[in-house]
Amino acid sequence: MYLSDKIIVRMKKILVAEDNRLILETIVHSLTREGYEIIKANDGKECLKVMEENEIDLLITDLYMPYINGNEVIAILRDERKKNTPILVLSAAGAEDIVLKAFELGADDFMIKPFSLVELNVRVRKLLAMKR
Question: Which fold has domain 11-129?
Answer without folding.
Answer: Rossmann fold (3.40.50)
